[in-house]
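Quick note —
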Amino acid sequence: MAYVNISLIRLVQVEQQLLIILLDEAKQRAMTLWLHPMEGRALAILKGVVKVPGSKTSLDPAAYLGFVADMLLATGATLQSVRLEELQDRLFYARVILQTPTGIGEVKGRMGDGLALAVRAGCPITIEENVLTQYGIQLPTGSRKMLEQRLDEIIKTTSTNAHPPKQAKFPRLPEPKNLQFTEGLECWELRGSFFHDASGSHWQDYTSGTDEIGPQSGRKSGYLKAQVPEPEGYADLRQAIQAKNYLGKSVRLSADIKITDVEDHAGLYLRVIDPLTTKPPEVRQQVTFQGTQDWTHYETQSEVLTDSVFILFGISLSGKGQVWMMNVQLESVS
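Predicted structure written out below.
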């Protein structure tokens, strides 16, 4: 399998997403990829696209990369290269190649994290030749000015043809609000892995909203549904609050849930986040459902450790179908 050296030549913020342009200088080919802002935050800070106010702390992902680099150095390991590999349909991950005292080691990770490590360490970034052959955009040969103009055109065209979905941004409140959806989706956010699709072709796979349907007339429910026959990844309709009022306690999330034609699974979930976000999004306390089911009351519970930062809660959906929730409650139980 042949691999090609590439460089990250452009990083541009488009609304709330990050657009990357990779360059194969030898054959003058460019390739565009999208990064979710959370996955690409460290990279954006390193490239100067995002500024970090104040002094750097352990919560700064770019500073955390420095810690990782120092830890590798202390253990005698060096970063050799970062290889981008396609999982499926322009969904990429990073394979980090390390030289260790016992030989070559490999670690898989998110594309954004791998690219950020490569930029900080100044190590090569590689990608399979077949991928560039399939997705590469041929660039003009000649002056640097012509190249820059063509890259500007690619950014404009890509940004226009693949609009990232607008996501509401709410401050992290100390307590949950609008649990009965009387204010629509105020304080609720649509999130999920489908936003991480590097091609941008799956950003509209899921949607959220409110309905008048529910076990009590005159009250609203919030819903999450797939908009395409084969949606990518999963979606969450959630709130994120500060954990400070719940530290050292357990919290219980309860709600009435209704599902229709859920082929994979839907869930009522509760997720507690620590300062370094060491647990991935799929690590959560949840009750899952499948198929079609009328309104049923469910609850789930989680500990909030003393170093917790945020509590996330809501409903999730993976695959086709629709899930509703109402009568949502989040309460301390100890």
